[in-house]
Automatic annotation (TrEMBL):
NCBIfam families linked to this entry: P_ylase (TIGR02093)
The protein's Enzyme Commission number: 2.4.1.1
Protein name: Alpha-1,4 glucan phosphorylase
PANTHER family: GLYCOGEN PHOSPHORYLASE, GLYCOGEN PHOSPHORYLASE, LIVER FORM
Organism placement in taxonomy: Bacteria, Bacillati, Bacillota, Clostridia, Eubacteriales
Superkingdom per UniProt: Bacteria
Length: 821
């Protein structure tokens, strides 16, 4: 690794100036901030490239086993800052830029977030890549280069508007187009069977072909010279739109292919935990899977000559069911292109694929109509049929005459392809993402599969990278940690437990809370600039940032704010510690109730923030366009972490871990990874409320509960419900929030009213606890100190040990690679 001392500031400055000239034909004095950012990024990329090349030489030399992390989403966040951090000369570049008259934060702000994901699932994939590189494990991330990523959210008049995110508009400096590795992906047509040498050969004809062209992004390991690759695929028209095909009467086919290429990778579907069921989505899935599997096999063959050894060198990890077509595509390649018979191909496939389940919610379970699936992927569908036929035979052998088992486990049923069932049938490992979630999979959702093959199931509790969410996002706390417990935590988060010896010392308590205060000032400035709202940094910053979804219950949070406000209006002398409720959330474009909830939050904010009579005791802020880059700022400034999902619904959550690491106690339900957070930090250092997962699931088995029982018996609930429909927050249209009222009073399937009292009581505990400055500081510090388990480094080590079986590699840089130009 380039030692800090090796960094030559003057040659860096010269390089930046040169890059501005080369890229833009301008002197640096004439350059825009965007140009400076690009010039700096190219200079950093220059250093990355050497490490990238060396890493891949090493892989080849070792013939190393690699994991291919297949994911429709990689929510990587901005790369400039983290890449510099990983290279080890963040302070030096910051200083060099200052000497040139530029502010590092301002330059970093010029980078658009590559928003190639929706939320937690995509962010997890990004944290995993960071950990894989830092730990030195050979890995590829494989995904899609969406032309427009997650939409940008604009709030106008309290409503969400979706604006296309043209993240490539200025060019993305860290990507490298690898046209030489393009492959072809075929859609549609029909399958012709040919007898040759006593074997059936299956040939797809009359198809549309798309050229899949990879763009590689470097994933820079921290301080170890390892650079893995995130390979995202772009689509191009397969053949030149030429006169020849026009003459052959294939003009319309050529147009069709050009159009498909244009639309294929155009957008990321903005649904989180919900299927769109759109044909184009299935095309996207097959497109990036076929390209990724083809390229993995080509790479394998560079250093191996027996395809039977594939499982020793390659493992495909399926991030949710979105990449599940991998199972059938690998079968197709092994049989149709490598000439293996079914049993050989199945043996290889089922020793190469592993599946991660991310949700138990039925609306998120992927099913494709057989009609659509077979029309789009005729050969792959034949293979799925055969997988299903054999799988059903196995079920019948185990459970003779049991039709229910077939109904609950078959891959093809009721005219649909059930992707989770295909993923389980074709994988050697099935994992959940937190202990509670995995137990629910085994006991309920996937019970039949678990009973058939218990050894297939395992848990891998999610994690987050401390490099982004502490070292980069919270530089003040990072510095404090370095000074007091050393730098070991950056690559070994278990060492953060050393903070425990400081938690009772008033000096350290004060330092810790002063850092929190500085971070609150930074966020207050961001809010002032972006929302025009003044918030009080001495108030409690109570934060809920995550996708807007009914199960995450932002509605519970805002109903409680309405309740507090009513209490305060009735009793102006009420003893209440000033609180700033901060929200950030995107709603899927078509998710009406979620969008209405955003409007409600903003309507409540409007009323409360403009009521001088409450003397600023409550403020409500909805931060526009929640994304990775502002998450880093918000998390560092939080006093309270709202993780209030209906128990059993949040598979893990990772936002909860970011807050804990940054010293914000969890106000939450016993759901997902909250359970393990409480296990680590102790119940006395969290604010837990609400129904347990078992209680929720018991109510559900009984057909729900009756919300009117709560309505009738609970004045506070009745009051806020009435405010939803009496125009208090919508004087121009009292009916505006009727749908929310109806959802709560008719079924309340997310148990919001049921949990309301318990939540309000937990909020009172927060209010009381915050007043004891020293006790609160201790609690905040304990959260940081106990966050060691939640590093994605720990998660990755578990994947490696139990599923992937990779070997760490070392990369040494040849001497010449220092910036001494
Ligand atoms: C961490 C993260 C998420 C996931 O948050 P949850 O609270 O676990 O749902 C979503 N979006 C962004 C931008 C994140 O950084």
């Amino acid at each position: 690794m380039k030692k800090m001392a090796d960094f030559d500031k003057e040659s860096f400055k010269t390089e930046v100036k040169n890059n501005v000239k080369i890229l833009y034909r301008r002197d640096i004095e004439e350059a825009t901030p965007q140009m400076i950012y690009q010039a700096v990024a190219y200079s950093v990329k220059d250093d990355i490239i050497d490490r990238w090349i060396e890493t891949h030489k090493e892989y080849k030399k070792q013939n190393a086993k690699k994991v291919y992390y297949l994911s429709m989403e990689f929510l990587i966040g901005r790369l400039l800052g983290n890449n510099i951090l990983s290279l080890g000369y963040y302070p030096q570049i910051k200083e060099a830029l200052e000497e040139m008259g530029f502010d590092m934060d301002f330059i970093e702000d010029q980078e658009r977030d590559p928003a190639l994901g929706n939320g937690g699932l995509g962010r997890l994939a990004a944290c995993f890549l960071d950990s894989l590189s830092t730990l030195g494990y050979p890995a590829y991330g494989c995904g899609i280069r969406y032309r427009y990523g997650m939409f940008k959210q604009k709030i106008k008049d309290g409503y969400q508007y979706e604006v296309p995110d043209d993240w490539l508009i200025n060019g993305y400096p860290f990507e490298v187009k690898r046209a030489e590795y393009a492959v072809e992906v075929k859609f549609g047509g029909y399958v012709r069977v040919e007898q040759k040498e006593g074997r059936n050969h299956f040939i797809q004809e009359g198809y549309s072909a798309i050229r899949a062209v990879p763009y590689d992004l470097p994933v820079v390991g921290y301080g170890n010279n390892v650079v893995n690759t995130l390979r995202i695929w772009d689509a191009e028209a397969s053949q030149e739109f030429n006169l020849e095909s026009f003459d052959k009467g294939e003009y319309s086919k050529a147009v069709e292919q050009a159009n498909l290429a244009r639309t294929l990778v155009e957008v990321l579907y903005p649904n989180d935990n919900h299927i769109s069921g759109k044909e184009l989505r299935l095309k996207q899935q097959y497109f990036f899977i076929s390209a990724s599997v083809q390229s993995a096999i080509l790479k394998f063959k560079e250093t191996n000559d027996d395809i039977h050894n594939l499982p020793e060198k390659v493992v495909f990890q399926l991030n949710d069911t979105h990449p599940t077509v991998c199972v059938a595509e690998l079968m197709r390649i092994l049989m149709d292109e490598e000439g293996l018979d079914w049993d050989e191909a199945w043996d290889i496939t089922t020793h190469s694929c592993a599946y991660t389940n991310h949700t138990i919610m039925s609306e998120a379970l992927e099913k494709w109509p057989i009609e659509l699936f077979s029309r789009l992927l005729p050969r792959v569908y034949q293979i799925v049929e055969e997988i299903n036929r054999r799988f059903v035979l196995k079920i019948q052998e185990l459970y003779p005459g049991n039709q229910d088992k077939i109904k609950s486990m078959a891959i093809l049923y009721d005219g649909q392809v059930k992707m989770a069932h295909l993923a389980i049938a074709g994988s050697f490992s099935v994992n959940g993402v937190a202990k509670l979630h995995t137990e629910i999979l085994k006991k309920r959702e996937l019970k039949d599969f678990y009973e058939m093959r218990p050894e297939q199931f395992n848990n891998k509790t999610n994690g987050i990278t401390q490099r982004r969410f502490l070292a980069h996002g919270n530089p003040l706390l990072a510095k404090w940690l370095n000074e007091n417990i050393g730098e070991g935590w950056i690559t070994d988060l278990s060492q953060i437990s050393k903070v425990k010896v400081l938690v009772d010392d008033p000096k350290y308590q004060q330092e810790f809370m002063n850092i929190k205060y500085q971070n609150k000032l930074r966020l207050a400035k961001y809010i002032k600039e972006n929302n025009g709202i003044d918030v009080d940094p001495d108030s409690i910053f109570d934060v809920q940032i995550k996708r807007l979804h009914e199960y995450k219950r932002q509605l519970l949070n805002i109903l409680h704010v309405m309740h507090l406000y009513s209490e305060l209006k009735e009793n102006p002398d009420m003893d209440m510690y000033p609180r700033t409720f901060i929200f950030g959330a995107k709603a899927a474009a078509g998710y009406k109730r979620a969008k209405l909830t955003i409007k409600l939050i903003n309507a409540v904010a409007d009323v409360i923030n403009n009521d001088a009579s409450i003397e600023g005791k409550i403020k409500v802020v909805f931060i526009e366009d929640y994304r990775v880059s502002n998450a880093e700022i918000i998390v560092a400034a939080a006093d309270v972490s709202e993780q209030i999902s209906t128990a059993s619904r949040e598979a893990s959550g990772t936002g909860n871990m970011k807050f804990m690491l940054n010293g914000a106690p969890t106000l939450g339900t016993m759901d997902g990874a909250n359970v393990e957070i409480v296990e680590e930090v102790g119940a006395e250092n969290a604010f837990i409320f609400g129904l347990s997962a078992d209680e929720v699931m018991k109510y559900e088995r009984e057909g729900g509960y009756n919300p009117w029982d709560i309505y009738n018996s609970n004045q506070n609930v009745r009051r806020v419900l009435t405010q939803l429909i009496n125009g208090m927050y919508s004087p121009d249209d009292p009916e505006r929030f009727r749908d929310l009222y109806d959802a709560l009073t008719k079924e309340d399937i997310y148990f919001i009213l049921k949990d309301f009292d318990s939540y309000a009581e937990a909020q009172r505990r927060v209010d009381a606890a915050y007043r004891d400055t020293s006790a609160w500081a201790r609690m905040a510090m304990m959260n940081t100190a106990c966050a060691g388990k939640f590093s994605s480094d720990r998660t990755i080590e578990e994947y490696v040990k139990d599923i992937w079986h990779l070997k760490k590699i070392k990369v040494d840089l040849p001497k010449k690679n220092t910036k001494t130009k």
